[in-house]
Design goal:
The longest helix has 21 residues, at 9-29. By secondary structure, the protein is an alpha/beta fold. It folds into two domains: 4-144 and 201-263, Rossmann fold (3-Layer(aba) Sandwich), CATH 3.40.50; 154-199, no CATH class. The chain has helices at residues 4-7, 9-29, 49-55, 68-77, 79-83, 97-103, 122-128, 160-163, 173-182, 187-199, 203-212, 229-233, 242-245, and strands at residues 39-43, 60-65, 87-91, 107-113, 133-143, 216-225, 238-239, 257-263. Strands 3-2-1-4-5-8-6-7 form an eight-stranded mixed β-sheet, with helices on both faces. The termini are far apart.
């Protein structure tokens, strides 16, 4: 049941732009307002829609992604910003020594929106980000907790049944893979979903990594209804009830997105 944004990149790009303008930037502004003179790095930038909203504020933005296809799309969608020198898109790994040398201490904001749940060895990645921050810089993380109803990203399934089936990604790995194959999912989709299963992250584990590495959680919001659902499904965002967001483990099952700002 592939959604429009999974098939049409122009739809996905515009959803990113709209969501960033209306929800993400106000969330960042409450802590460290985005504006002229700032430098912003987005890891896993995809088509670059989030960064368009930031360049509109006068920030210089760098998008990095491991997918050459998506970076090429970003360069096309963001051609005016790239030509003016307001944005740069790179197919590069942030562990690359060349990236490290060029961008050490460069950024006021580092953004990882719907990205950290795809990255292996988050215990290594999260502290690695410190070196790229300017003094007073912050990092934004937004991700779906692994145990939430669609934390396995099963909405990318071609099967309408599986695409609408909550929590089945929590099955043991062999059973999960077998079910995907039984419903006719392609080898590529099965592989993609198993990789997400291997890297999915819970709220508690994320917070433990943050504190272990000397970061401070400066702001956070738990969403019962993810802001991006407004653009995907026409459903208004809704913040999670405080009593539920305060229940470790249980909250992961009913929170569709968590947003954090952290600092040193």
């Amino acid at each position: 049941m592939a959604l429009a944004q999974h098939v049409h990149t122009d739809v996905r790009f515009q959803q990113q732009v709209d969501n960033a303008r209306e929800y993400l930037l106000p969330f960042l502004d409450a802590v460290h307002p985005v504006g002229p003179g700032m430098q912003i790095l987005e890891i896993g930038s995809g088509e670059g829609g989030v960064l368009r909203a930031c360049t509109e504020r006068g920030a210089f933005c760098v998008g990095v992604d491991l997918s050459p296809t998506r970076i090429e799309e970003a360069r096309q969608y963001m051609a005016p910003e790239v030509e003016k020198g307001n944005a740069l898109f790179l197919v590069q790994n942030v562990y690359d020594p060349a990236f490290q040398a060029q961008w050490s201490g460069a950024f006021d904001w580092i953004l990882l929106k719907d990205t950290i749940e795809h990255i292996p060895d988050q215990e290594k990645m999260i502290p690695w980000l410190k070196q790229f921050l300017r003094p007073g810089g912050r990092v934004f993380f937004g991700f779906p907790p692994w145990r939430m109803p669609f934390g396995g990203h099963q909405q990318i399934c071609r099967s309408k049944v599986l695409g609408m089936l909550p929590w089945f990604h929590l099955l043991p790995r062999p059973a999960y893979a077998a079910l995907l194959r039984t419903f006719g999912e392609s080898p590529q989709i099965v592989q993609d979903l198993l990789e997400i299963k291997d890297t999915g992250i819970s709220i508690n584990r994320f917070e433990n990594i943050i504190r272990k590495n000397g970061f401070v959680i400066e702001s956070h919001t738990f969403y019962f209804i993810n802001p991006i659902y407004r653009y995907k499904f026409g459903i208004r965002p809704r913040v999670q009830a405080k009593w539920l967001s305060g229940l470790p483990f249980i909250r992961d099952f009913f929170t569709t997105a968590v947003w954090y700002v952290i600092r040193m």
